[in-house]
Design brief:
Blueprint lengths: L9 E4 L9 H12 L8 E5 L5 E8 L2 E8 L16 E4 L1 H8 L22 H9 L1
């Protein structure tokens, strides 16, 4: 069972990856293709051309780790990506849905609090500040 904590950041490599690549080859794709630091602690996700294999690359404090899965039947459905971007940021639950074979298009999310959204209006802020 794979655990993907929501505290990590997840990035999906847009192009297909050669699944013969290991730690050094995948970290090279992160540096050159994604323009990100593979030592950041972020999780980087790679799929092969047929989308039947996936690798997740992660730097832990003392070295790289790879999660590798090959489907015996079927393929992974990837989210729609902008052609200009070399990667897409994913939520941990989205990645779990992809790995579980669930189409992201069929998922309907209920409204939840998101710390990254502006959840406070100016009037509420002012009344809080002014007492």
């Amino acid at each position: 069972m794979l655990s993907l904590p929501p505290s990590c950041r997840y990035f999906l490599y847009r192009d297909h990856a050669d699944m013969r690549k290991s730690f050094d080859g995948l970290s090279g794709l992160v540096r050159q293709g994604l323009r990100k630091d593979p030592l950041s602690g972020d999780v980087f996700t790679f799929f092969n051309r047929r989308r039947s294999q996936v690798k997740l690359l992660l730097w832990e404090r003392d070295g790289f780790s790879i999660y590798y899965k090959r489907l015996e039947k079927g393929t992974y459905e990837l989210p729609v990506m902008d052609e200009k971007n070399s990667s897409i940021a994913l939520r941990s639950d989205d990645l779990m849905l992809i790995l579980g074979g669930i189409s992201l298009n069929s998922v309907r999310r209920r409204k939840r609090f998101d710390i990254n959204e502006n959840n406070f209006t100016k009037s509420a802020d002012q009344s809080f500040i002014n007492g």
